[in-house]
């Protein structure tokens, strides 16, 4: 039995999609399916009900999921403890969500480097779930992502420690019309359909947006005209007048101040508060450069106090 099979199974159990899970694991769908089959053969019982859409865990799959998560956690922590304790720390592997890489990360690194000399960051960027897998698998030291209590992620997140780095809002934006007003309205009863620039529903922002627009009796009808997991793609489409996009406010501050984009509605029911968090597994926090994790916490407290 290969530990990758367990990691594959955990990704599939969270995403409920062979296609998305295979993309997240960076393998072809056929290879991913074979690995899941190999795990089921090793266990001796089906873990996935493939006759449902989307595929769901069988009863055995539900029972096995917690055990698989615990096995992966223990194996990774043991590997870290045995393989890294004697190594000289040379750099910090930081995984950052795409949505934070351009508008938050540079200032944060500048603040940290101004207070701690000699730090070296090896930075990777990707989707939030890829970062969660990288952190739980010991392939990064720190993970910087958005967090919201209304869209909690898997139990992997709870197994680590975190620091709040700041706050943000997910807001609806679009271009302006000829009168200098938002081109679209979320409160006009005459509007029958609005063009939506959407996130895939299984992504972090996708789940947040679904909660904002799908469970209100007065919600206008939205017609998805484009979909992408990347905020920068939806940002570009919104700037070109293609439709309404829900984007982190920090990403569009310059566009809002210049008038290139406008907030579609200032009603709080159409926005969602976000927390920017830095995660490390408990073992990673202990193995980071001496006192670095505590130094980051103290620096962040000082930044928050001065802000």
Question: How would you describe the overall organization of this protein?
Answer:
The protein has 307 residues and is an alpha/beta fold. The protein has 3 domains: 3-84, Orthogonal Bundle (Arc Repressor Mutant, subunit A); 92-168 and 275-306, D-Maltodextrin-Binding Protein, domain 2 (3-Layer(aba) Sandwich), CATH 3.40.190.10; 170-273, D-Maltodextrin-Binding Protein, domain 2. The protein is 43% helix and 21% strand. The protein has 12 helices and 11 strands. It has helices at residues 3-15, 18-25, 29-43, 59-84, 98-101, 105-115, 128-136, 204-213, 231-239, 253-258, 282-287, 292-306, and strands spanning 48-49, 56-57, 92-97, 121-126, 142-147, 160-174, 194-198, 222-227, 244-248, 262-263, 272-281. A hairpin with a 6-residue loop joins β1 and β2 (56-57). α1 crosses α2. The chain starts with a helix and ends with a helix.
